[in-house]
Design brief:
Elements (H helix, E strand, L loop, with lengths): L2 H11 L3 H13 L4 H20 L5 H25 L6 E6 L7 H12 L3 E4 L6 H11 L3 E5 L7 H12 L7 E5 L5 H7 L3 E2 L3 H13 L1
Parallel strand pairs: 1-2, 1-3, 3-4, 4-5
The structure holds CO-5-methoxybenzimidazolylcobamide.
């Protein structure tokens, strides 16, 4: 990676938003390819994701790095659109019905965006009907659901049941996660994958789409 992009990646890892924006603008004005600039941003977020998995950085560092990445992305978004750089795939994410916890879900969203995926965030307290409407409207590759309460975990199954009823189950992969969720639970309700943290969720989402 060129020196400017390397510097941009390092500033992103430190969450230095104004520097990331300035370096992104410099990269654009020096005529670097927007896809290469994007890869510089993704590289920084990838490093943060790995460190987060190893408990070398924590939620606040991830949040400020993601904020810097989003600011950098805003600079190059119009150029990427002009160039027709396609996202890796599309994910619909939300916290299930009855559940208002969104910090983990937001981290998953940020990591997925950082991995080059387009993410449509339905927010919290998302009913099966809302998931279904979003699938019908957006034709995503993946539905990602988060739950933090043992009492709302069954609502993940309700979404899978609704997908089956509508004949949509084969069209999307289903990923689930959140503190009380387990791999066993995922198998029990027929989800495709459980992942333990946001960085793994982004990795697995890409894997599910590309393989
Ligand atoms: Co609530 N809460 N809360 N809470 N809350 C917990 C979850 C709880 C464990 C606290 C406790 O009792 N020790 C408990 C649940 C008990 C249970 O069900 N077994 C609990 C409770 C009971 C409640 C209320 C019922 C309290 C009340 O009103 N009596 C109430 C419910 C409201 C509702 O949702 N309907 C409630 C409310 C709240 C607040 C609104 C005050 C606030 C939420 C604010 C917000 O999210 N905007 C809150 C908080 C902050 C917590 C704790 C303290 C922290 C949760 C958090 O954000 N963690 C939590 C206790 C705890 O966990 N220590 C607690 C940080 C976040 C990064 O982790 O979300 O686990 P997490 O995400 C992780 C992974 O799980 C994973 O990635 C992230 C890390 O990379 N992950 C995924 C998450 N989603 C994923 C999806 C994936 C893959 C990975 O694929 C799709």
């Amino acid at each position: 990676m060129n020196e400017l992009l390397q510097n941009m990646s390092e500033k992103l890892q430190k969450g230095k938003m104004p520097e990331v924006v300035a370096l992104t603008e410099q990269a654009v004005s020096e005529g670097l390819d927007p896809s290469d600039i994007l890869n510089g941003l993704l590289d920084g977020m990838g490093v943060i994701g790995e460190k987060f998995k190893r408990n070398e950085v924590f939620v606040p560092e991830v949040l400020i790095a993601a904020r810097a990445m989003n600011a950098g992305l805003d600079v190059i978004k119009p150029l990427l659109e002009e160039q027709g750089v396609e996202p890796v795939g599309k994910v619909i994410i939300g916290t299930v019905k009855g559940d208002l916890h969104d910090i983990g879900k937001n981290l998953v969203r940020m990591m997925m965006v950082g991995a080059g995926l387009e993410v449509i965030d339905l927010g919290v307290d998302v009913s099966p009907e809302k998931y279904i409407a979003a699938v019908e409207e957006n034709n995503p590759d993946i539905i990602a659901m988060s739950a933090l309460l043992t009492t709302t975990m069954p609502n993940m199954k309700a979404v899978i049941d609704a997908l089956e009823e509508k004949g949509l189950r084969d069209k999307v992969k289903v990923m689930i996660g959140g503190a009380p969720v387990t791999d066993n639970f995922a198998q029990e309700i027929g989800a495709d994958r459980y992942t333990v943290d946001a960085a793994s969720a982004a990795e697995v989402a890409k894997e599910l789409i590309l393989n």
